[in-house]
Amino acid sequence: MTTVMEPRLLDQLEDQLIAIEAAYLRHYGADMGAWPAEVWYLLRAARRDACQPNLPLYSRRSSAHTRRHHLARLPFRIDQVAPGAVSILLTHQSDGTPQVLVRDESGARINLPRGASRYLAERLRAAFTADWSVPQTWRADTNTLTAWGSR
Question: pLDDT confidence of 17, banded at 50, 70, 90?
Fold first, then answer.
């Protein structure tokens, strides 16, 4: 069974994909060969989200060994996508989509390309077990996750 789309919807989808790629080129540089693998994954995820919106973000259930593995590599993976990130605040909008606020050392907000919030939420969920209905804060210096408002 095939899905038939109207030509104007296809044009809108193509415009979205072009805008996504332009944003990544602006953010990470014109030399795509120099992009880290994490950025390539992020671009593919942003393209997927443009083509198939409203895919749910599943909670991850993994063994302790797998969580430790993801936890050990988390600072590197976050630095590939958001260089200079010191803290990340992860919240969820009312429809369940993740929203991420990334700050650098001076407290300024780091602007991220489309799809980065979902990617960072996936990485944090892979490394930590937490109550994801509550906003969570990740700190780079300690590589720990705390519930919003707790110290």
Answer: confident
